[in-house]
Design goal:
Length: 203
């Protein structure tokens, strides 16, 4: 692939991400993506024959970026507490940089759950949970977290990070009533969320 082809592909990916997040899979048009990328529709179809293929690529690449960002979670030299603090700091920062992403994913899951399940089927979550449990088996036993309950803990952690962004309109309105800005609330949440979970599992 030449440098020009790589640049074109990057433009398509960035444009497609913006259009899909704004309009969803059903509302997005290939022409809109081509216009935003600054290319003609024929060239877009040369790279991606169908809108579904482009959508899958955007979803998978976004997920891959997220997984790469969280690679230190598998660092055997970090304690469980250090990993928890790392997770909330990086996850919330990622959501600050991509605030429309939670709404986009939730919308697609509700409208076309089979499409998202098909994409997620390529991810080895079982190995992810197994590796994490093996690295911290003693700590998990100390906190009464089993292999069966580990997914509950992980989903709860993700929800703590994601919910403020998914329900931003409501939360921002409530915070405004007590003179707290959403941005300062989110910054404080990076540390608060970690402390909350650590205290919860330590009891």
């Amino acid at each position: 692939m030449t440098d020009n082809e790589k640049l074109t592909e990057e433009k398509i990916f960035e444009a497609a991400t913006d259009v899909f997040i704004e309009k969803g899979m059903d509302g997005a048009r290939m022409q809109d993506i081509a216009n935003l990328a600054g290319i003609n529709k024929a060239l877009l179809h040369y790279y991606y024959r169908t809108k579904e293929k482009l959508f899958n690529t955007v979803f998978e690449m976004t997920a891959r970026k997220l997984f790469i960002k969280f690679a230190p979670v598998f660092d055997e030299n970090l304690s469980l507490e250090e990993k928890l603090r790392f997770f909330f700091k990086e996850h919330i920062t990622f959501l600050q940089d991509n605030p429309r992403l939670p709404g986009f994913i939730l919308n697609e899951v509700n409208r076309h759950p089979e499409r998202i399940k098909k994409i997620l089927a390529t991810v080895d979550f079982e190995n992810f949970f197994l590796k994490l449990y093996e690295q911290h088996e003693d700590e998990f036993k100390k906190y009464n977290i089993t292999r069966a309950t580990l997914p509950q803990v992980m989903v709860s952690m993700a929800a703590i990070s994601v919910f403020p962004f998914a329900a931003r309109g409501i939360i921002e309105g409530i915070l405004g009533k007590v003179n707290i800005s959403f941005n300062s609330f989110i910054e404080e949440r990076k540390e608060f969320a970690a402390d909350f979970v650590i205290n919860a599992i330590s009891r």
